[in-house]
Design goal:
single chain, alpha/beta, Rossmann fold, six-stranded mixed β-sheet, 5 helices
Amino acid sequence: MVEAIRFRDDDTHEEPAVSLEAFLDQSNATAVRIEPGEDARLLIPLLDRLALIDVSFPAFGDGRGYSSAQILREAGYKGELRASGDVLVDQVAYMRRCGFDAFAPDAAIDTKVMEEALGRYDEVYQGTTDNRAPIWKLRHG
């Protein structure tokens, strides 16, 4: 099993994530898994119940999970937001900008390469949930 990568100081949430459908039908789960195509907005009224939201990336080219992360963070979710599945090292910086703070990749990620990638660029081109000002705004106000 590949070791998870976390950018959080709290304890790892050990409860297995249930499907979105199962979560919506029960009241005691604190971890949910969102699959591509599922509507993350359904969780917004229930965010205070969740310690972990696991967003599935079955293929590296399927970017729908980025939108789910952005929606959840903009709605105020503060818990662990984990990207799992076919997560590649070159995606981590973009996923972090959208709000992911934990990763459970199918294949191991070299942490040295990941740290280099995360620190490579000082400026960004678009705004996201990390509140970094885009380069155009820095240049033109």
